[in-house]
Amino acid sequence: MGEFTHFDQEGNAIMVDVTAKDVTERVAVASGLIKVNQEVYDAIVGHSAKKGDVLGTARIAGIMAAKRTFELIPMCHPLFLTKVTLDFTLDEHNRTIKAICTTKVEGKTGVEMEALTGVNVALLTIYDMCKAMDRGMEMSEIHLEEKSGGKSGHFIRSK
């Protein structure tokens, strides 16, 4: 695990050759939070934001971003994703919205970057659609929750 695989012997950045890897079912789940003020929280819950359906738009943006991760992150392999979901959990007490992105593929490389990209873009979309009401929104706790498939096996983040 401790060895960098995205560099050649001269230290140049390279795309990892996955030709010899086995095709396996790979799943990744990532999540992150955005903390908002009361006005934003109420607008999202009440579907009254001036720019439209905030969570619906954020869901679409996150799914689209997951599908295009290879265009954003250097050395990421283009993947034919077989599943991308983006769900939200709202916490009224803390005025937070948790985005949870699940990605799935039958392939030779994992889908962690796609899940993390989906979460980030979903949260950024919420920020963009609500920034007129709260420029102090704060995104945090973006991380991989779980991944399965591939040589490295099953990972579940410990609390």
Folded structure, characterized:
Strands 2-3-1-4-5 form a five-stranded antiparallel sheet, covered by helices on one side. The protein is built from four helices and five strands. The chain is of the alpha+beta class and 159 residues long. It has one domain: 2-Layer Sandwich (Alpha-Beta Plaits), CATH 3.30.70. The mean pLDDT is 94. Strand 2 and strand 3 form a beta hairpin. 28% of the residues lie in helices and 29% in strands. The longest helix is centred in the last third of the chain and has 19 residues.
Layout of strands and helices, then pairs:
Blueprint: E1 24-35, H1 38-45, H2 54-67, H3 69-72, E2 83-91, E3 96-107, H4 112-130, E4 138-148, E5 155-156
Antiparallel strand pairs: 1-3, 1-4, 2-3, 4-5
Helix pairs in contact: 2-4
> What's the number of extended β-strand segments?
5
Strand arrangement within the widest β-sheet reads 2-3-1-4-5
User: How much strand content do the residues show?
Assistant: 25-35%
Return the CATH class.
Answer: Alpha Beta
**CATH architecture title:** 2-Layer Sandwich
Q: Helix content range of the residues, please?
A: 25-40%
Please provide the ordered H/E string of secondary-structure elements: EHHHEEHEE
CATH superfamily: Molybdopterin cofactor biosynthesis C (MoaC) domain
Largest sheet, in brief, is: 5 strands, antiparallel
Could you name the ranges where pLDDT drops below 50 across 5 or more consecutive residues?
none
| Overall pLDDT metric | 94
Task: Note the overall shape.
Answer: elongated
